[in-house]
Amino acid sequence: MNKLLSQSELDTFRAKAAASAHPRELIVDLLRAIQDHHGWVPDEGIELAAEILGLSPLQIEEIATFYDKIFRQPVGRKVIHVCDSICCWATGSEEVAGYLRRKLGIDFGETTADGAFTLLPTCCLGACGDAPAMMIGLTLYGRLTPEKIDAALEKEKSRSQESGVGSQGKTS
Ligand code: FES
Question: Would you say 88 is a known binding-site residue?
Answer without folding.
Answer: yes
